[in-house]
Amino acid sequence: MEKSTTRRSERLGEARRRRGAKAVSDVRRGLILEAAQEAFAELGLAGTSLREIARRAGYTPGALYSYFASKEEIYGALLGESLERLNACVAAAVAEDAPPAARLRAAAVAFFAFYRDHPRELDLGFYLFNGVRPMGLTPALNDRLNRRLRDALSPVESALIATGRPPSAATRDTTALFAQIVGLLVLQHSGRIRMFGQHAESLLASFVDAIAGDAPPDG
Amino acid sequence: MEKSTTRRSERLGEARRRRGAKAVSDVRRGLILEAAQEAFAELGLAGTSLREIARRAGYTPGALYSYFASKEEIYGALLGESLERLNACVAAAVAEDAPPAARLRAAAVAFFAFYRDHPRELDLGFYLFNGVRPMGLTPALNDRLNRRLRDALSPVESALIATGRPPSAATRDTTALFAQIVGLLVLQHSGRIRMFGQHAESLLASFVDAIAGDAPPDG
Amino acid sequence: MEKSTTRRSERLGEARRRRGAKAVSDVRRGLILEAAQEAFAELGLAGTSLREIARRAGYTPGALYSYFASKEEIYGALLGESLERLNACVAAAVAEDAPPAARLRAAAVAFFAFYRDHPRELDLGFYLFNGVRPMGLTPALNDRLNRRLRDALSPVESALIATGRPPSAATRDTTALFAQIVGLLVLQHSGRIRMFGQHAESLLASFVDAIAGDAPPDG
Amino acid sequence: MEKSTTRRSERLGEARRRRGAKAVSDVRRGLILEAAQEAFAELGLAGTSLREIARRAGYTPGALYSYFASKEEIYGALLGESLERLNACVAAAVAEDAPPAARLRAAAVAFFAFYRDHPRELDLGFYLFNGVRPMGLTPALNDRLNRRLRDALSPVESALIATGRPPSAATRDTTALFAQIVGLLVLQHSGRIRMFGQHAESLLASFVDAIAGDAPPDG
DNA sequence: CATGAATGAGAGTTCATTCAT
DNA sequence: GATGAATGAACTCTCATTCAT
Question: Rounded to whole angstroms, what are the CA distances from B199 to A2, A171, B183, B212, C166?
């Protein structure tokens, strides 16, 4: 009997089996993150507990610790995924062969629209929940996340450079645009823009026009 | 000994007594708010519990409920006071006889500086206006707070009108400036501005200049 | 209506009322400690949770925190009470007018019997004085507890001095007797004495006799 | 490639293979125990979890159950090894051709020193961690362990007999010495001896001298 | 008005153990 | 034999709030 059975590890290579296990694990990790995302969207960051995430994911609370070392690690992973989606969104919106001004506008609008449509991810990204203060991420992870955030704005910066702006001015304008977008999002999110009878989208358009029009004459 | 003392309420007239009581009550309410403010400034919003506020105010937790119906009402009152201080700050910064452009810049800088220097008060606003609708605020209080926030921006709006801008454009530019300031504050606070190697103050100055310079030729 | 009611604080002096409240509080604290004691006796130290203590005392877990700042503070209080009882036991066993040798034996036996009959209280001491340094005790409390432990042995030391032994020798012999008692308790408790077919009581008696007989000839 | 390899079990005879497997298994069991020992020594009994042991041994927690049926069985095995080391220590300290009094002292000191230098093993041996109560060992194992503990004391007993003491008195004195040693260890471990300004080693020496000098005149 | 006590829910985390693979 | 995942119970402690006194 024993002799006739072929051991699994002999059929599949060990590596291949492990890869499969890792894939399964990654999928489940993803399901947990989905549940967390959903919970955050409904209850906000502060209102979401580990238990709630576990409940929605169909796990017991302790089981999550097989996938994440702490609640904050879930935050971090969530933020990471959010930034990936943001990058994808912005990149998809920018047609590479379009003129710089069009690319600038497309990137800005995509960036804005992403957070307008997923406001909870703004909370996540800017720690708006608990004081505007970075949370307990490892410095390494924090760096990685920051880099991805910058990446999402790089189409804006590139477009500005393509208009002939010197790099330092491009960075400066990118930052200003970034601030404008974030400000508009926060005001929109908290109902302050309505208070002034304005529309975030049109304010953003004006801002972009102002920047684009500001290009040097030979741009 | 004890029996011979006449109770306070028997010496003073009822109305006068009530007025006095109200004054005393208001003072104590103020002391509690002071303690709360202090606690927030030190510990942040999430780190401050009712117990902590009570402790700092020299009360037991239950006693606070004689002055405030809930923790959120304390937040509301605190935000109210914060907005008063903001108004005072901005008003004090604006010299009434200065030229419009100078008033515009002074008001914008004062607004920005207020929250830059008291970041916790920004948190308060974010907390209470979380999600689409304010939490734990009565509509009446909410209105009052919103009005005071607008008030704080009215020097900006007035200055813009004084440059000859039509009211609708003034409101529009005020909103844009408001968004820029909020965005800069958020980015500054979450360390994102440093990431771009920029300075919030100089970005703000540029923004104000752009708006001011944008005045119609005959302004 | 209002006028006719006499306020409580006017009937009783404030101080008196407070004293009453403190007494009630102390009683309830005592009931919690009783429940804790009972739980320890049944389930052992590691097996006793705050929840269990609360359950037995008829409280919710959180309620205990009105009386004790932490689980370890309960341990400390329990140990404190235990040491008081130990002191009372030993003191009661020693007849002041008895000859020194009788007092020595009585004190030693009382000390031994106390822990033989309440073995869990021995555990408490072991727990709190675990490793080289006490855990979870304030240094002040630790000192107080240590002092009370020494106090419980002072009748032994006094009796030895009364036999004419010099103080340094008395301290030395007290320590040796202390060690013997503790050793016997541990061995008895872990079933090791039965393993040798011996009886702790008679071994203790021999030890005391040896010490007592060791007195200088003119003692 | 894979197919052409002949499985180990086909090359070796069945019995030999089994023997080899057992040896491998024993080695790994030993490695786990080493890891456990290390963990106990560092973190104490209560601070050591199965996970921690597994981590240090390079296993996942579940894997340990291939070698031990429960956490307590690990305790038991650890205690067994500890007692072996104790026996070796004591035996090594006793020169067979030395006079009885010297052997007595050497054995006592070795026994004491063993636990003084490895205090965590005292916890293990006397269940000092969780109430002085035997833990969940099978009676058979418990018997075996008890026997090994007695074995460690047999040099003491032999030496006493060699001084001419009748066996029953020798057992009695051995037990008393055992208690003294354990008591001194516990007191030393919990800082109580320092409290009296004494030294465990010198107290032990006195005790041994008293016993040795107590030999019957014709011994 | 103020206290002290109590509630009840809930927080994040850890644990020994089990089991399919 | 070993893994990784999962359980389910338990842990201490904190919180906003209530209420008799």
Answer: 73, 12, 13, 20, 80
Task: Determine the residue of chain B that is closest to A124 in CA distance.
Answer: B190
The single residue listed with the structure tokens 């309830």 is C28
Q: Distance between alpha carbon A162 and the CA centroid of its chain, in Å? A: 25
Length of chain B counted residue by residue:
219
Instruction: Catalogue all structural domains in chain C, each as residue range(s) with its CATH number.
Output: 1-68 (1.10.10.60), 72-219 (1.10.357.10)
D103 C-beta neighbours (distance < 10 Å), count:
22
**Is the Cβ atom of D59 within 7 Å of strand F at any atom?**
yes
Q: Which nucleotide is nearest to A69 (CA to C1')?
A: E13
Structure confidence by residue, pLDDT tens digits, B151-160: 999 999 999 9
Q: Which chain F positions have some atom within 7 A of a protein CB? A: 1-21
What the block records as the tokens of C89 is: 């036991």
SS (H, E, C) B150-190: HHHHHHHHHHHHHCCCCHHHHHHHHHHHHHHHHHHHHHHHC
C10 neighbourhood in chain B, CB within 8 Å: 2
Task: Return positions of chain E under 7 A from a protein CB.
Answer: 1-20
Helix, coil or strand: residue D197: coil
For chain A, give the number of residues. Answer: 219
Say whether residue C205 is in contact with chain D using an 8 A CB cutoff.
Answer: no
Give the distance, in angstroms, between residue C56 CA and nucleotide E7 C1'.
17
3-class DSSP string for B44-90: HHHHCCHHHHHHHHCCCHHHHCCCCCCHHHHHHHHHHHHHHHHHHHH
- Most D-contacting residue of A1, A4, A5, A10 (CB-CB within 10 A), to test interface: A10
As a whole number, mean pLDDT of residues D193-212 equals 95
- Strand-pairing partners, residue A129, are A131
Q: Could you tell me the end-to-end alpha-carbon distance of chain A, in angstroms, rounded to an integer? A: 80
β partners of residue A131: A129
pLDDT digits (tens, 9 = 90+) for C140-173: 888 898 899 999 999 999 999 999 999 999 999 9
Q: Is residue D169 within 8 angstroms of chain C, CB to CB? A: no
Q: Which range, B129-133, B157-161, D141-145, has the best average confidence (pLDDT)?
A: B157-161
Q: How confident is the model at residue C136 (pLDDT cuts 50, 70, 90)?
A: low
Helix (H, G, I), strand (E, B) or coil at D38: helix
C-alpha torsion angle, residues C126, C131, C137, C140 (rounded to 10):
100
Distance from C-alpha of B35 to C-alpha of D145, rounded to nearest angstrom: 63
Predicted TM-score (pTM) of this structure: 0.85
D172 close to C210: Cβ distance less than 8 angstroms: no
